[in-house]
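Methods — Computational structure assignment.
A single polypeptide chain was analysed. Its primary sequence is given first, followed by the predicted tertiary structure written as structure tokens.
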Amino acid sequence: MRGAEPPAPSAAPDAPGAETAPRPPGDAAAPAAPAADPAPDAPEAPADGGTRQADVPGRGAGDLAQLAPEIPTDRLPRVGTEAAQPGPDAAVPGAPPPPIRRYAAEADLPAGAPRLAIVLVDDGTLAFGAEAVASLPVPVSVAIDPAREGAAAAMAAYRARGIEVLAAPDLPDGAGPRDAEIAAGAWFATLPEAVAVIEGRAGALQQDRALAEQIAGILADEGRGLVLHRQGLDTGLALAARAGVPAAPLFRRFGEAGETAAIRRQLERAALRARSEGAAIVAGPLRADVLPVLVSWGLATRDAGIALAPASAVLLGEE
């Protein structure tokens, strides 16, 4: 019978970072190496497996994402991209056409004729706006602010009558690329059949180069066009063209004063611009006093060598 084995000597574990008594002089044992500091914890990855977005100056981390967590913001790195992006003609085989083609109003335009697009801004004050616009003898496009009450229903009413719709959004002063990315998701969630974006307040979408470049990148990804107010060297339009976005300047707004003679003069100037440059886009309010002027002026212009066209036809510039 084997005797009980003596218990193995146990070494007292050194607690990390604990102090040890100094060895007496002459001890042959080498001094213990200092304990290594534990490695810092790796930053926790986002729960959805994505990458972290940089915080926006002046806002707390994640504030913008919390405002609209359902809106993707993976296009933000587009700011600063120098390569030109594919335009609306670069369709993926088997994919549906981009919105600027899919939701464009039908138009039979004479080849080579100067094109003038009239965009009416529907702010919701005119009852039965879709019915009124559908009764016009001239083609027009309609712009809707996606933030206004009833915007989605208004878009549906126009689209049911074959009238194309543009989104007319605004961005607050000081808006940056991340703000545009989040806002654009809301614009097109409300107005999914918008063929293009038309700048509502002058300069709102081109406050600086970074913002204008982000807007261009978003619209290139979306397959929609862009109409901007002229500003300085028209950097916003140049960035849009480089990104492959069908873009054009807004020549002028008409009908602000509400005088019939003034509206006719403004439309005549727009027609002259279309003749000199080949195309032009104007915008005016959808009001009861504006519609009769459009009817009379449009009928008188039929034999004047100007092709009144939807905004998408001017943006795409197709024969």
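Note: Confidence is low (pLDDT under 50) at residues 1-73, 76-84.
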